[in-house]
Structures are given as structure tokens and as C-alpha cells.
Write a structure and sequence with these properties.
Layout (H helix, E strand, L loop, with lengths): L5 E15 L3 E8 L3 E7 L18 E8 L4 E10 L8 H17 L5 H17 L5 H14 L19 E3 L6 E2 L9 E3 L1 H10 L14 H19 L4 H7 L1
Parallel strand pairs: 3-5
Antiparallel strand pairs: 1-2, 1-4, 2-3, 4-5, 6-7, 6-8
The protein binds zinc ion.
């Protein structure tokens, strides 16, 4: 009488995990083939559970899934790359968590393969960085905006088309506008941060090491990311809330 299960194998990154019943967990995974899915890992809270590692955020593994109508079950997992280093540095952990949150927000509406590649590159880079972690978030955010249809024009004001030294986030549509076109209350992107954005959009994650960000610019960067998340995706990143003020 059992419900027939289909078995599939896919690579994915665990975005989040919640406890379920006494010994199980339900994980949200961004998979290369199916986008964001929920799956159960049975018995994973027992001391010697073999798949403990697969129930932790940032786990990048190849997952064996038994797909059922109600919910898939993870029957096996083999780690592809370890981002353990990332969880050992507070700044990297905050930024990494923000990146996972972004993926869970935009994942369902993005082309899966492009986003998956960007996520892997971003987490890999983040794990290698020892400082300036927010550079990775900024680069990832620019890419996310592009794949979700909100690519920023970093060359000219979206209203008057003039060259911009510093920019402002237009609060209604999230476009970048010049000081003269900015409405009251628009979030400013200073000329330093704006130059950095223009530089980093041209390079891949492998070349982000050339950029440096001060603590002051970092606060500005977080405000910029949160404003765009709010405008385009309707919510703020919880991970950044604790480091912004
Ligand atoms: Zn303008």
C-alpha cells in the first residue's frame, strides 16, 4: 500500500533547516535541477547520524532524493565542496547567510542554472576571503538583480540619462538616479561605493580580491542591498539586520 517513490540524484546547497518531530529535520535546498525544494532527512538528530552534515546550511552535496507526493526524503548525500571555513568566521557567516536568504527569496523566479553557478562561486569566494566579505555580497546582489530582471544601470541616471558621480536608489522602482533627479528620502550610494560597484560588475568572483571596503562603506552597502531587496522582493534580509545598527 506504500506510496510509490521515484529516486533522483541532484546537486544542491542547503539554505536552511528546521527540526521536525523527534529526530528528523526538514531542509530547504537549492538544487541545480529543480530549484528550491523541501526535503526530509530522517533520524538526523540522533548522535551518530550519517547525514548530519547534510542538514546544515551551506552544505554543498550531491543528494539522493526519494520523491513522494507529500515531501521528498533524502536517502543519501555526498559532499561536493566544504564551506566549513565560512562558518568559522563571524563576518563570513553573516554574509553567507544573507546570500542563502537571497537565493531562497529569488530562487523560485530565476533561471536555476545561472543562479546555482553564481551561488557556488560566491560561497567558494567567501570561504577563501579572510576580510572584506561584504564585497562578495555586493557582487552577488548585482548578479541577482540581473537574473531576476532588475539589472542596475551603473552608467547613467535612469531619469535624465546624465553621467552620475554618486547615485541614489529611486524608492519606487529601485533604479539608480542622479542627485538632481533623486526624490526626498532616496538612499544615497556615495561616489566611492558607486565606483566600486562599477568596477566589480565587470569582473567575476575570482577577481574580487582586488577590492577593499571600509566599515563605513560596508554600512552603506548593507543599506543599499536592503533597500533593493525591499523594493524588488518585498522583504529585508534578516541576516543583515543584526550588523546594520
Ligand atoms: Zn538624473
Amino acid at each position: 500500500m506504500g506510496v510509490s517513490a521515484k529516486s533522483v540524484v541532484t546537486q544542491g546547497v542547503v539554505l536552511s533547516a528546521v527540526d521536525y518531530l523527534d529526530n528528523d529535520k526538514i531542509v530547504s535546498i537549492f538544487t541545480q535541477d529543480f530549484g528550491v525544494i523541501s526535503a526530509k532527512i530522517k533520524g538526523v538528530k540522533k548522535g551518530n547520524a550519517k547525514l548530519k552534515f547534510a542538514a546544515l546550511p551551506f552544505c554543498y552535496a550531491q543528494f539522493n532524493l526519494a520523491t513522494r507526493e507529500e515531501m521528498s526524503v533524502i536517502t543519501n548525500a555526498v559532499e561536493v565542496e566544504s564551506y566549513f571555513k565560512l562558518t568559522q568566521n563571524y563576518d563570513a557567516l553573516i554574509i553567507g547567510s544573507a546570500i542563502l536568504e537571497l537565493v531562497s527569496m529569488v530562487g523560485p523566479s530565476c533561471e536555476t542554472e545561472v543562479l546555482f553557478y553564481a551561488l557556488i562561486k560566491a560561497l567558494h569566494t567567501l570561504a577563501e576571503f579572510t576580510t572584506h566579505h561584504s564585497i562578495v555580497l555586493l557582487r552577488f546582489m548585482l548578479g541577482i538583480l540581473k537574473v531576476s530582471g532588475y539589472q542596475l544601470n551603473l552608467q547613467a541616471c535612469a531619469k535624465c540619462n546624465k553621467h552620475m558621480k554618486e547615485a541614489f536608489v529611486e524608492p519606487k522602482n529601485g533604479a539608480l538616479v542622479c542627485a538632481a533627479c533623486a526624490p526626498f528620502g532616496a538612499v544615497e550610494v556615495s561616489s566611492e561605493l558607486f565606483d566600486m560597484l562599477r568596477g566589480m560588475i565587470k569582473v567575476d568572483f575570482d577577481n574580487l580580491g582586488q577590492f577593499a571596503i571600509t566599515k563605513l562603506q560596508e554600512k552603506e552597502a548593507f543599506l543599499f542591498v536592503q533597500k533593493l531587496c525591499d523594493i524588488h522582493y518585498g522583504r529585508l534580509l534578516n541576516s543583515l539586520k543584526q550588523v546594520m545598527f
